[in-house]
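Continuing the series of single-chain predictions for the mutant panel. This is the parent chain; the variants come on the following pages.
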Amino acid sequence: DDSYSVDEGFTEIRAPVVQDRPWIRDLDLDAGYRYSSYSTAGVTNTYKFEVQYSPSPDFRLRYSYDRAVRAPNLIELYNPQSYGSQSFQATDPCAGATPSASLAQCEHTGVSAAQYGSIPQCPSSQCGQVVGGNPVLKPEEADTYSVGATITPASTPNFSASIDYFHIAMFGLVGSIPGSYLFQQCLDYGTATDCSQIVRQHATGALYGASVGSGGYILQTAINTGAALYSGIDVQANYRLPIGAFGTVAATFNGTYVEHDITTPYEGAPSYDCAGLFGANCENAINPNWRHTLRLDWDTPWRKLLLSLNWRFIGAVSFDNNSNNPELHFAEEGMYDYANARLANYSYFDLSAIWPLMRQLQLRAGVNNIFDKDPPILGDEITGVGSANTYPAYDILGREIFMAFTAKF
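Parent structure:
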């Protein structure tokens, strides 16, 4: 059985540098390091650094930097390689009696002078490909930094808030390069890395075959390629307000603004930004610029009854195919989809109660999606929406009423 092992060691330190000085109530440094040695991927080094500065009890600033890695999993490493066909490299420009590519170009792709002009064309407009795992994959890497602040004003002791900007840059991501791109790069420039992925049939020079061993394919196994960037702002706030004989009211807010969700599928490919978009090219998901939850809790004085109202908000998104970036277009050139152009803002409201009936028995009950709001329904041409013709991020089941008892003995 295929497997891998890892040996690791780590260390972490947190040190107060300055405390209780003028304009420096607290200055802390935090650092960490991890050494990992994988039997497949080799040695990786991850580390972090964070500094926190508080000029007063009311305010705290922080900055952090992290280098992170993700080692390839067993499927990415050892998924069996298999032969198939691909439609995106539909024809071989070096095939036929009068090839459209020159001899010099075709020699880049493994064609000999004797074969030129007599190579069979790919049948049914589908050339061969080999897909599967790659045991020499390296770990993915990411550089992350964040800048934030926390506010805990002494004048309002029951209030706290924080805001953080985050920036996550990932590179060397595990993926595959389209055969058409590999082939064209090799054909035009003779790049050794690209040309090494083209394996012609040993006897005929054709770009199709019947098995991995016979040749006739473009190798498209998993490799370390591509990059991504994810950035935005997280906001949190909490407030508790005693209301005398009527108990206490509390509010909790959590929101995220997505600035960028950029993907570069493979090295040399154009990038595209999915922030504020939905669709097949944007990972078959919705990526709103803004979403939040706001929860209001009323801790009543009546037998410790707790009532909660929750607001779930999903911001509006636009169809990726209608964007200005041609890399997100999959419909016919110039075809604007008016029916699925935009999904509006969505709000869901949930109500719940927790009531300790006695020391050993607790009642939980509530209603999710109080107003029975239907999810947006998308056309069948939008892939990734599932059998319900919508995205899982939306409430598919409609209004739900629940009740449960918890007993302790």
